[in-house]
């Protein structure tokens, strides 16, 4: 079965390939010559994942897998959440986002945080599967590690006992919010095939 992955992020594509690669023929937006940008104007990860999956499905006619993810910090009332990519404004800038997070967390005692991911596999109106995943950690008081992307150098993983910036991609993928959301979606897909 062919599935179109609604992302231009190569890191996400690789992660999805590791989990789905043997079961589906995965197509990227580039493979099908699509260059659409769907505005992520939803108030929840699920709303945004639906917007992307639906938008790309309507343009392509191919079952579409989309994801939306972000960081939720307890001391900031759950922010930046769906605003994670644009925490410090537009256009998205990881360095500015991390600098703003450090500033807002400068005096915070509660440093608990989690990454959250929602993935949707859209086959058509009223025909879709949802997968959700989380991974917990703490916000560090300085950038730690060179790897990963986004907020990874500021996120100390409770499960890996190091920052996501210090972890290898294999280590991170095993326990990541996106990895978990994708696995949960895949299990539901297998149930549906029975
Ligand atoms: P997206 O909308 O799912 O592409 O992601 C929103 C934003 O959340 C990204 O731009 C990152 O700032 C942040 N984010 C999501 N997942 C991760 C992750 O695994 N590591 C670090 N930052 C992440």
Characterization of this structure:
- There is one protein chain.
- This protein has 194 residues and is α/β, with parallel strands linked by helices.
- It contains five helices and seven strands, in the order βαβαβαββββαα.
- Strands 2-1-3-4-5-6-7 form a seven-stranded mixed β-sheet.
- Helix 1 links the parallel strand 1 and strand 2.
- It is globular and about 50 Å long.
- The mean pLDDT is 94.
- Bound molecules: inosinic acid.
- Inosinic acid binds next to strand 3.
Give a brief rundown of this model:
This protein has 194 residues and is an alpha/beta fold. Helix content is 32%, strand content 25%. α1 crosses α5 (177-193).
- On the 0-100 scale, what is the average pLDDT? 94
Tell me the strand percentage band: 15-25%
Distance between the termini: 15 Å
Which parts are unreliable, with pLDDT below 50 for 5 consecutive residues or more? none
Rg value: 17 Å
The largest pleated sheet is described as: 7 strands, mixed
Number of DSSP strands? 7
Task: Give the fraction of residues assigned to helices.
Answer: 25-40%
For the biggest β-sheet, the strand order reads 2-1-3-4-5-6-7
Ligands: inosinic acid
């Amino acid at each position: 079965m062919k599935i179109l992955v609604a992302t231009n992020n190569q890191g996400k594509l690789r992660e999805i390939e590791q989990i789905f690669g043997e079961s589906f023929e995965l197509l990227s937006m580039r493979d099908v010559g699509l260059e659409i940008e769907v505005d992520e104007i939803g108030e929840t990860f699920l709303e945004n994942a639906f917007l992307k999956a639906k938008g790309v499905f309507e343009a392509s006619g191919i079952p579409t897998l989309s994801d939306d993810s972000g960081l939720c910090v307890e001391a900031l009332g759950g922010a930046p959440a769906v605003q994670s990519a644009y925490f410090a404004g537009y256009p998205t800038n990881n360095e500015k986002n991390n600098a703003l997070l450090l500033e807002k967390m400068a005096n915070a005692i509660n440093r608990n945080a989690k990454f959250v991911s929602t993935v949707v596999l859209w086959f058509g109106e009223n025909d879709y599967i949802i997968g959700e995943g989380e991974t917990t950690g703490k916000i560090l008081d300085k950038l730690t590690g060179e790897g990963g992307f986004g907020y990874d150098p500021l996120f100390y993983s409770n499960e890996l006992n190091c920052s996501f910036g210090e972890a290898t991609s294999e280590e991170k993928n095993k326990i990541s919010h996106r990895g978990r959301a994708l696995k949960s979606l895949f299990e539901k897909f297998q149930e549906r095939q029975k």
